[in-house]
Amino acid sequence: MNQIAPKKLFIKTYGCQMNVYDSDRMADALAPHGYAPTQDMAEADLVLLNTCHIREKASEKVFSELGRLKELQNEKRATGGDLMIGVAGCVAQAEGEEIARRAPMVDMVFGPQAYHRLPDMLAKAEANRHMHPALKRAVVDTDFPEEDKFAHLPAAKKDVTIGRGLTAFLTVQEGCDKFCSFCVVPYTRGAEVSRPVAQVVEEARRLADAGVKEITLLGQNVNAYHGEDASGRAVGLGELAYLLAEIPGLERLRYTTSHPRDMDDALIAAHRDLDFLMPYLHLPVQSGSDRILKAMNRKHTAAEYMRLIERIKTARPDMALSGDFIVGFPGETDADFEDTLKIIRDVGYASAYSFKYSTRPGTPGANLTEQIDEAVKVERLARLQDLVNKQTSDFHASCVGRTLPVLIERVGRMPGQVGGRSPYLQAVHLEGSTDLIGGIHEVEIIGTSTNSLVGRLRQAVAA
Ligand code: 5AD
Ligand code: SF4
């Protein structure tokens, strides 16, 4: 595949941070085959939709985007050009052939476990383009391979220019064995798999060498991580954190998303011992009602979750918590919903994501009959979000007067300002020169604005 002028690749990413990471890896895998990234879909030769299947709306969005892409493809063909279209990600994994049938202009459909085979699929799809439209078929790859896709994909690298590339995602674990009854992930991403320790450390080291200061480890069930070390022993996320803390230049570590059942002693101890591990934890509970938690197959009660939070806060008293909540799970009564509001009050979240339950085909939840009215879901969601928003602004307000280490990442919105993140993942804006970018600086928090903090520089602690 020797191109004279590089072809243009546009990737549209939906859903979680793992998809963001995967999209970057796909772009890296296609670069040696003559595809350069573009931000402008109209000039693309190949558009990949990296899709999300977690909720109903997410997959509907994909089909409407495909409608728009069909028009773009027609326009290009009318002027002698062409556009190849690939659907990747979890909708592709779940619907496979169905996408090829419903959207015949699509050239490739492939799931998250097939990304390392993308160059081969592309070659096949390019050959197919010369076939008669009636005979043309999309290349579909939704197998779960035996081989390790990460061993075949280019490792994450960063282009460190001012304000970019200081933070990076690193996928360490994929898939999930928990089978919450509402969730498609165990079906779309498959069984839980952890990358070997050496591979993770090597990728982190390379990121740090390229100037990355903060890494967020990713996994659908990241704290279930159990990568093998050189002797074949399984290493948990807590132990991995100590190893990553040794990497020169790497200053901060985060991880997401965690399951309460996998918050083990070693990981809690790492939070106690390592300032490197940021005091912000996304630990979804989904509901505060034991009855609903059981129906959701969450494998923990509300009281067990609260005890866990206590243990975490004993280890790291300033830990800020974040969560996910589902309202309107089948059978959820007013009393169940009140229990959810109660657990939110008891924990005091720094932030939280909340969703109306949506039936996902193929999940056990889809067979439950007691569906909740949309109007009830809407009302519950609004009440829950009011409470969470109030907690978020209370949390921001509680930071005023404190001095926090802020990783300065970019120029600010206003001239003369720079912006960064607090340890608790809050956006912080302050007056300061662009020389501060890339360093962690002590910043006194002097106020709040919508969804962010306003600070004043104290002194540099790291460059
Ligand atoms: N309906 C609504 N929300 C869902 N989530 C997962 N599946 C569903 C569903 N079927 C939410 C959960 C999960 C987050 C990523 O998305 O809260 O933690
Ligand atoms: Fe889905 Fe539950 Fe696994 Fe999270 S833990 S990915 S919600 S099945």
TrEMBL record:
SMART domains, sorted: Elp3
Enzyme Commission number: 2.8.4.3
Domain of life of the organism encoding this protein: Bacteria
Residues that, per the record, bind [4Fe-4S] cluster 2: C176, C180, C183
InterPro entries, A to Z: Elp3/MiaA/NifB-like_rSAM (IPR006638), Methylthiotransferase (IPR005839), Methylthiotransferase_CS (IPR020612), Methylthiotransferase_N (IPR013848), Methylthiotransferase_N_sf (IPR038135), MiaB_methiolase (IPR006463), rSAM (IPR007197), rSAM_horseshoe (IPR023404)
Catalytic activity: 2-thio-N(6)-dimethylallyladenosine(37) in tRNA + S-adenosyl-L-methionine = 2-methylsulfanyl-N(6)-dimethylallyladenosine(37) in tRNA + S-adenosyl-L-homocysteine + H(+); N(6)-dimethylallyladenosine(37) in tRNA + (sulfur carrier)-SH + AH2 + S-adenosyl-L-methionine = 2-thio-N(6)-dimethylallyladenosine(37) in tRNA + (sulfur carrier)-H + 5'-deoxyadenosine + L-methionine + A + H(+); N(6)-dimethylallyladenosine(37) in tRNA + (sulfur carrier)-SH + AH2 + 2 S-adenosyl-L-methionine = 2-methylsulfanyl-N(6)-dimethylallyladenosine(37) in tRNA + (sulfur carrier)-H + 5'-deoxyadenosine + L-methionine + A + S-adenosyl-L-homocysteine + 2 H(+)
Domain called TRAM: residue spans: 397-459
Keywords for the protein's UniProt record, in alphabetical order: 4Fe-4S, Cytoplasm, Iron, Iron-sulfur, Metal-binding, S-adenosyl-L-methionine, Transferase, tRNA processing
Stated name of the protein: tRNA-2-methylthio-N(6)-dimethylallyladenosine synthase
